[in-house]
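Researcher: Next entry in the queue.
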Amino acid sequence: MFRMTTIDSRFTDVAWEFLLGCIYLAGNGAVIEEKDREIILTSPWVSDLDNPNFKPKSMLIQSVEIDSKKRLGRLSEVLKVLVQYGYEVKVVTSKPGCFKWKSNWDDSEVSKDGDLQRKLASHGVQVIHNKENHSKAISTPIGVILGSANLTGNGFFKNSEIMQLVNRNEANFSQTRNIVHRKAIPIE
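Model: Structure for this entry, 188 residues:
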């Protein structure tokens, strides 16, 4: 039987620690296998999450911020630094203004969404449009978080969400990573 931990609060900090942990490993000389260089974030829509109050229990963020010389409380900065440290970062989402999952886009939201996607792409993040994908996941070589939270301010900081956590040392980790990849990345 597979064991998965369900988290209904503080998953934001867990997500940040997974992402920053990848930076920490690469920045401190860990040999990262090719299969572990892929990081996938999936959500029908994505915001440039600002996590100004992130205070991990460890000294992780301070160490990573000192090494990278960046403030890493904003998602776009974290993803940019991951690319700089040699990770293949993929954000799977809908095109700006796609009505498949959200029907009430206004012009400013479409513009903001497009600006973020262009910003991410300009820093080497692969933005993959998949209007059929409704999954919400963050898949890293450290762990996978998947569940109901969109990668937006509401999903991460406001709404009541339930997320499942699969750590690298769990038996179903590789299977979970493969499922996120297969379901999120469209076959060409």
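Model: Residues 11-27 form the longest helix (17 residues).
Researcher: Noted, moving on.
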